[in-house]
Amino acid sequence: MLKGYTKEEKSWMLYDWANSAHSVVIVTILPIFYNTVADFTANPASGMNTWGYATSIAMLIIALMAPVAGVMGDFKGARKRLFTVFLVVGVLACAALAVTPMLPFETQAMAEKVGMTVLLLYIASQIGFSGANLYYDSFLTDITTEDRMDRVSTMGYAMGYIGGSTIPLVVFLVMAGLGVDMLVCLSVVFGLTAVWWMVFSLPLLKNVHQKSYVPYEKGAVGRALRGLGGTVREIFRHKAMFVFLLAYFFYIDGVNTIIHMSTSYGDTLGLGSTEMLLALLLVQILGLPFGLLYIRLSEKLGARFMIGVGIVIYMGITVFGFFVRSVWQFWVLAILVATSQGGIQALSRSMFGKLIPDKKRTGEFFGFYDIFGKFSAIMGPSLVAFTSGLAAARIRAMEGIAENASAEVLAEVARRAAPWGVLSVLLIFLIGGGLYFFVLPRVMDKKK
């Protein structure tokens, strides 16, 4: 499968194999554990809303630091060092999360403390994950040529599906199936995520080198930071890049929101954790063949066309998600997500890489690519949390349910309100799709 790829390309792609463990375990299993802890807090029905806001806080922090981090990574030799710093932060946060299931959280006071600890470590892991990814994305222009970017980028996502996205999840499900205590399973899989992420990052650390860089001179850091405004103006001047980033801001927010909120949504609906995780395993298994399909189709039809296909599919996913009430529907939703989750992210990354005018400043430009992606990720989870909260308040008002009603009654209200939160994501896809389908082609044609 990797025949024809260089050593650097393989080592770079293997990092997707490494960090995908975080994408599945921390982003999809951890919310289920958090909801369990939240059941013992003063407001047990607030799990999905709180998780949405925590995700938004993490993305806000990442978005604010991304441009500066990107500039710093463009200096000679800095990209890999900074990549390593964020990698270690993420790995250590995952290792610390392995302790949390072993803490007592059955009383309200302890549940509040454990819940807050989980949220803080989750935010730290997201900062490490996203910061490392910024530099990982920047290495794309160092390890391959422009004509191979679509293939290499998409194959990286495909590697993630068959490695980090699948094997730790299988370990967790096998342990649970053998009757191992669920809290022990959670502790083991969080620890395994830390080890997996670190070990399979070693080939990148050894074999991938920064080739595009800005020479470091005295005062260069200050000049580079002051030059961020110039980069913004440069992005505005390159209208194709600006419109693409604007469309990306919206449609990738929808994608990330579905990734981050899927298990929290299913748990709020009352779906079984094991059934949901098996559905997510199916997403990872199907992600490889669909990723390879995206490679083939992008070579024939173009990356721009296939990103458009992904946007349309995700619009359908959002509408279908509104009607999900049972496990089999969640499985259908998982299959739909599997068709495009990796493809739309991989091709967006490579398409932006091709639009960068100065390859020596890829870190700086990918810093803005990252800020568009992360600032958007603040909006989606917050919109889901706000809309579902608004719907819950409306249901309580219409039916005369007090805010201090029993936990069972409030949980039922949350279950009925949650689909409205998911449906609100459609608005984000409509805006992003409008820009992508109707504005971007005009500026791309003018560029030609």
Relevant CATH superfamily: MFS general substrate transporter like domains
Q: Which CATH class is shown?
A: Mainly Alpha
CATH architecture descriptor text: Up-down Bundle
Mean pLDDT: 85
The structural class is mainly alpha
Order of helices and strands: HHHHHHHHHHHHHHHHHH
Query: What proportion of the residues form beta strands (DSSP E)?
Result: under 5%
Q: Number of helical runs?
A: 18
Q: How many extended strands? A: 0
Number of domains: 1
Can you tell me the residue ranges where pLDDT is under 50 for at least 5 consecutive residues? Answer: none
Write up what this structure looks like:
By secondary structure, this protein is mostly helical. The chain has one domain (7-210, 217-447): MFS general substrate transporter like domains (Growth Hormone, Chain: A, Up-down Bundle), CATH 1.20.1250.20. 81% of the residues lie in helices and 0% in strands. The protein contains 18 helices and no strands.
SSE diagram, text form:
Layout: H1 7-38, H2 47-72, H3 78-97, H4 108-138, H5 140-143, H6 149-162, H7 167-177, H8 182-199, H9 202-207, H10 220-226, H11 228-237, H12 239-268, H13 273-301, H14 303-322, H15 327-355, H16 362-399, H17 407-423, H18 425-447
Kindly summarize this structure in a few lines.
The chain has 448 residues and is mainly α. It has one domain: Growth Hormone, Chain: A, CATH 1.20.1250.20. The protein has 18 helices and no strands.
Question: What labels would you give this structure?
Answer:
single chain; 18 helices; Growth Hormone, Chain: A; mainly alpha; 448 residues
